[in-house]
Amino acid sequence: MLVVELAFTSSPERLAARPAHREILARLHAEGELVAAGPWVEDDGALLVFAVDRGRLEDIMDADPYYRRTPGVEVRSVRAWTPIVGVLQRS
């Protein structure tokens, strides 16, 4: 699994892009590629957990302008994560 951490500003462009981004997230979740996603309570960033490999994550991020082309959104980190409990494991 891969965990993406985002940082936000209150940019109007970010807020305008958010509905389309959330539609993409809903589709990725329904397809099993996104485990969970959501903003921090302060709305200064977000955490997303993907059940994909690095190449597929790059494709996902390239297809959604929110990650790389929307003012007010910064990808802070992409890290591999090995869950021990709490997540269904795929074989």
Mean pLDDT: 93
Oligomer: single chain
Question: What is the CA–CA distance across the termini?
Answer: 13 Å
Using the coordinates shown, work out and report the CATH topology.
Alpha-Beta Plaits
Please identify the structural class as seen in this structure.
Answer: alpha+beta
Give the H and E element order.
EHEEHHE
- In what order do the strands lie side by side in the largest sheet? 2-3-1-4
> What is the strand tally?
4
Query: How many separate domains make up the residues?
Result: 1
Low-confidence stretches: none
Topology of helices and strands:
Elements: E1 2-8, H1 12-30, E2 34-39, E3 45-50, H2 54-63, H3 65-68, E4 73-80
Antiparallel strand pairs: 1-3, 1-4, 2-3
Report on the architecture of this protein.
- By secondary structure, this protein is α+β, with helices and mostly antiparallel strands.
- The protein has a single domain (2-80), classed as Dimeric alpha+beta barrel (Alpha-Beta Plaits), CATH 3.30.70.1060.
- 36% of the residues lie in helices and 30% in strands.
- The chain has helices at 12-30, 54-63, 65-68; strands at residues 2-8, 34-39, 45-50, 73-80.
- A four-stranded antiparallel β-sheet has the order 2-3-1-4.
- The protein is globular, with a radius of gyration of 13 Å.
